[in-house]
């Protein structure tokens, strides 16, 4: 099975784990660019292949035909927050549609499903520390992901962050799984994700 | 015997006080110093904007110049700017819609501070439901009366939050004419039956506000707001946009001039007597014969983008003329350094792919 993984700087943890220690049977190709360089903005698909006007700004880029992949994965995504205010039903309807324009992983997923009919899996970024994390529990995160999956297009699946990477009762990522900047994860964290992806992809 | 030459008062005045050097001998685009700001508005200070249509230009200009324009009623993350605008988010600092009159401002303030109950009136048209106090806030109305009520209460709470947290409250006075509910006395921003609702001459009464009432309600609103935020300062402007229609029996042009003159007089009175109130002359800039109507669209009503730009450039240039160019000082060097550091950090991580 071959997977094309799109992402930002968080992709590196999966890529390193894939290169260094992955024992599974899935083959991964990556398309990644840091969020500071606008992440996946501008990525489109032309003639069944990924296209960008400046592919050299990605590390790496990939031009394989989309039909060769079994599924697509998006790494390091901030989850669209659940609207907290009492918005009107008309607005929420428009909002759901708008997210397929404004949120790159959803925009590309919808397009990939249209072109290939294959599934797209969206992985959240590692939890950060700080005050906000202390207010959230793993159960809150699960509920958030469940809510996202209740309205996204068929074929798109948000997945919960692997529980073993978080501290009990809090959504702060385990320190040993983080890089020194405390917001990016390392290859051990990536390895846990690859294992979880194999389960999701039912390998 | 020595003759002492006493200067007459005009001799010591600066250039701006004389028509010829300040206006007559200048290109209209070089006219400057039209505003002597009372307050040094720092980029970090929160500014909220409410009022007539023209207030939204002030909010936009503040945002684009990196000032801290505050929206307390935000659209959900991921909404496009276009949809947000369709649903009246980020037009004013909360989704109040236009607050054309000072009595409407007083009404919103009373609701926000709990001085008066929020009316329960809701309009229905073709199975959709409309808020009489914000009839165009949703492009096709609400799905149910509950949604109308819920949304209005949300906006009232956000309006209160704007009052509580802002350093500056910019209010653009637009009209003197209004429509009120005869029985309960509350005011509608638009005449019932125009956009939605049904006009009923027994229930709906026309009011053309007079100087005293406008002055009183605006004074009261400001005092009420300062009761929950004593540091709040006000910048008043008068909308340069003429009336679309008048119900005053006067010609609409005459009614417009009367209306704007009264509003202008009120702002002058308040600005002169209150240290926490300033007046910015957007009305004069757009409407002065010196500018030969060049800031209006061909319908001679809507202000064109050049007019908006000229007004807002005047706003910022006058701040710089008085206080020096402090805008760059206000830009946080830490935040740009942090952004750069994050980018570098991300790129270093991605560099691992090259190994």
Can you describe what's shown?
The complex is a heterodimer of chains A (203) and B (355). By secondary structure, chain A is α/β, with parallel strands linked by helices. Chain A contains six helices and seven strands, in the order βαββββααβααβα. Chain A has a five-stranded parallel sheet, sandwiched between helices. A two-stranded antiparallel sheet of chain A has the order 3-4. The longest helix of chain A is centred in the middle third of the chain and has 14 residues, at 89-102. With 355 residues, chain B is of the alpha/beta class. Chain B has a domain at 43-239 and 262-285. Chain B has eleven helices and ten strands. In chain B, strands 2-1-5-9-10 form a five-stranded parallel sheet, with helices on both faces. Chain B is globular. The interface between A and B is medium-sized, with 36 and 33 residues.
Q: Name the shape of chain A in a single word.
A: globular
Please tally the helical runs of chain A, counting DSSP H or I stretches of 4 or more residues: 6
Query: What is the strand content of chain A?
Result: 15-25%
CATH domain class of chain A = Alpha Beta
User: What is the residue-mean pLDDT of chain B, rounded to a whole number?
Assistant: 92
Distance between the termini of chain A: 9 Å
Write the layout of secondary structure elements.
The complex is a heterodimer of chains A (203) and B (355).
Chain A: E1 2-7, H1 11-20, E2 27-32, E3 44-46, E4 49-51, E5 71-77, H2 89-102, H3 104-116, E6 119-124, H4 131-135, H5 138-151, E7 156-158, H6 187-200
Parallel strand pairs in A: 1-2, 1-5, 5-6, 6-7
Antiparallel strand pairs in A: 3-4
Helix pairs in contact in A: 1-6, 2-3
Chain B: H1 19-24, E1 46-51, H2 55-64, E2 68-69, H3 81-86, H4 102-112, E3 123-125, E4 128-130, H5 145-165, E5 168-173, E6 177-181, E7 187-188, E8 204-208, H6 211-228, E9 233-238, H7 252-273, E10 277-279, H8 282-287, H9 305-323, H10 327-330, H11 333-350
